[in-house]
Amino acid sequence: MTKNYKTNNRKVAVIGCGFVGSASAFALMQSGLFSEMVLIDSQHTKAEGEAMDISHGEAYARPMKIYAGNYDDITDASIIVITAGANQKPGETRLDLVQKNVGIFKTIIPEIAKRNYQGILLIVANPVDILTYTALKLSGLPESRVIGSGTVLDTARFREILGNHLGVDSRSVHAFIVGEHGDSELAVWSTANVAGVPINKFCELRGHFNHQAAMKRIADEVKNSAYEIIARKKATYYGIAMAVKRICEAIVRDEKSVLPVSNMMHGAYGINDITLSMPAIVGKNGVELQMPISLDGNEALALKASADVLKKIAAEVGVLDLKK
User: pLDDT of 188-217, one tens digit each?
Assistant: First the structure.
């Protein structure tokens, strides 16, 4: 008989201790959200080293038990953060990673599933939308409890770049990147605003009138941010670590925050049976409600095209046919 484990709201597990996993673990240690964190990696000594290194800063943070473990240690974690996967190389798109990382997930997710895990899976490895779909299919968990980090980071980049362009605090910028976390993502300009003022009107208040050129430049800068960083330092990890922390905050604190996470589509905008990033209410039970944001005609078409890109890749690698 499979045992049912009660989750510990103060415990998190991180699977994968590469750049993204270790940076996420460091951010989570500093957050004060958890009192216990287990690190798992295919190279156990790597997990041990990261646990030791991060734990040495506890004297300047909050008490926390940090250790390297195995899959038996994840059964009562409230959130499992999965960053394990091949790294994105210079010149390589996120979708180029799909074949390798789906294979890795075929070894990780069944280990979680056979332990009757009752918490939330937060998928971070790329391509995150397809791997979220893979995790959902292989885990057998309810859709609400399998979440991808999606375009939470892209949206942060969007707001930061817009804030710099407009000379305003990025936290006052309300705008989303949706669709694939990758080359087919789209900026939702039609509802973008600064403290309720439509974005184009606010631009004019700040002396910017060439809207179309600025919109294209900013959207391209957001989309290409990862490539620019990878070209300079071979990997991105601090920004996504902050995004992981933000999603975990929303879950642990039951904030009901609206975040553009990867979640399953069921007919909205004519899109079915694929996970991609759309704003959703996120709380202690995971995704509670997908927000029905307004898109203009061109945006709706671009979102459908982004979904088609993901479904094509998912079909090519057999993800659409996966079963637990």
Answer: 999 999 999 999 999 999 999 899 999 999
Q: How far apart are CA 24 and CA 241, in angstroms?
A: 4
User: For residue range 260-308, what is the model confidence (pLDDT) as tens digits?
Assistant: 999 999 999 999 999 999 999 999 999 999 998 999 999 999 999 999 9
Report yes or no on whether pTM surpasses 0.85: yes
Contact 33, 12 (CB under 8 A): yes
Element (H, E) at 245: helix 238-252
Q: Name the one residue in this structure whose structure tokens are 């990890």.
A: 237
- Other CB atoms within 10 Å distance of the CB of residue 269: 18
Buried b (16+ CB within 10 A) or exposed e, 60-98: eeeebebebbebebbbbbbbbbbbbbbbbeeeeebbebb
pLDDT in tens, 123-151: 999 999 999 999 999 999 999 999 999 99
Dihedral, CA of residue 301, residue 306, residue 308 and residue 309, to nearest 10: 150
In the sheet where 197-198 sits, what is the strand order?
173-174, 193-194, 197-198
Q: Give CA separation, 253 vs 7, 33, 55, in Å.
A: 15, 8, 23
Specify whether 181 is catalytic: yes
How far apart (Å, rounded) are the C-alpha atoms in residues 306 and 177?
Answer: 12
Tell me which of 174, 181, 208, 266 is the catalytic residue: 181
Q: Which CATH architecture has domain 152-321?
A: Alpha-Beta Complex (3.90)
Q: Is 116 left (phi over 0), alpha (psi -120 to 50) or beta?
A: left
Domain boundaries, the chain: 8-148, 152-321
Which top CATH class is 8-148?
alpha beta
| Phi then psi dihedrals of residue 108, to 5 deg | -80, -50
